[in-house]
Amino acid sequence: MWDLLTDEAKARVGEEGFIARLPRIAEEMTLRSLEAKPGSATFPKRPNGSPDPARATVPIAVTFRTERVGDFARETSLRLVLVGEKDKAVWRIDWTPEAILPR
Question: Is the pLDDT score of 101 beyond 80?
Answer without folding.
Answer: no
